[in-house]
């Protein structure tokens, strides 16, 4: 800027507004920005009137500087030169709104938008995204409804915003509205919709979304972004085999593709496949990231591969350039704890170079529940009570561990502490998706379902068959000082059992009889298991507050049985 542009400009006796604007814009783009402001002062002193392009450049300068005060001054001058109805405001309004949005002054941005003679969809989209980032989805929706013209970009902004604000059902409803209006979805729209489906965990959108993607030219075989998102969606909706089918047809894969598939295998109890896929990835040019390694460590935990997990954890920074985070330490504590190495898990938590978060101590507390170690459990719980003082789950889990050890005085103290803090246990919930996509929700001990009588009959039949095979319920898992019969009743009406019984009830009767002949019980999560994939041709998936449980090939995916 100090060379030819300035030299040529200095030779013009009476530069007009366009020459001044060209030089001002040059300094805004290339710097220093302060010189652009000096030139603007000189421009006014020489009697040249600023144009809308001049103000666009100056608003951009204020945005880059993050100086909302300067922006307000320029806003006032633009109004002085032309007012709200002028061409200046019409052409530079979008840049002014962008300034206020990026400086976090949404009220001013909205006022400018309201005063614009023509409400531009570009400005509307910017405001919607800004409101969404602040979680103000009602304001974003109101603004969306006020727009006269809605293109694919603003529809996508609303869908993505709902998805990013953990409102997946609203995102899918918005997508349905978009389809009804005849607006075609692009890859960005589909990415938002896929994210919403993954959060919701339902399968009734899976085939439809994939069909739309393929019809629009964004099929997984040719689009790595959509392909990776579909792998993630299928895995999070409990359809791991479907996710792997998409993975295999993808011609191009990146670290997100592999990470989604490895994590999908891992969290659904298919540890061997997760680890094998990681070994295959290691032979490519794609380097794993922190999410990939979380998936592999989770798989090691499910498979009980302690030595492999230790080796990976120790080498991840040197070999892959990934510094262990709190989530990686959580995986290692979980791995060591599940395998019975509670002392080593406690030592690892205490020796972390960063402050352990609740996930680390929560994993240790959960391991103490598996191995019935009340002493280490109290150490882990003491940290959790400081980090998460209002998380009732930690108090309940500690009480369960103490009751299993017969320490009823300690149980009483924990429950008294819960009452002092005013904490109330939220009933456990489980979901199961019906064959037509309907979601059935069950609460622990809740017998208000329209088919509760039939559900309980199925459970009684299952228990009768299991008792003939020598099964006895683990009554120590009930942390109440009540009779054994009452404990059996509580275990029988576990929310996951109710959900699975409903699924069996709605399966064809001939298949149900065959399923009942292949039953086992998971001692960790107290769920019946069966070879459902071999019998009915599909998995039965039950989802509770913490995880999915897949009943296939005679085992439960929780990994503890």
UniProtKB/TrEMBL annotation:
PPR repeats lie at residues 16-50, 151-185, 223-253, 254-288. It comes from the Eukaryota. PROSITE patterns: PPR. GO terms for molecular function: RNA binding; zinc ion binding. GO terms for biological process: RNA modification. Keywords: Repeat. InterPro entries: DYW_dom, E2_motif, E_motif, PPR_At4g14850-like_plant, PPR_rpt, TPR-like_helical_dom_sf. Residues 470-561 form the DYW domain. Belongs to the PPR family. PCMP-H subfamily. This is DYW domain-containing protein. It comes from Chenopodium quinoa.
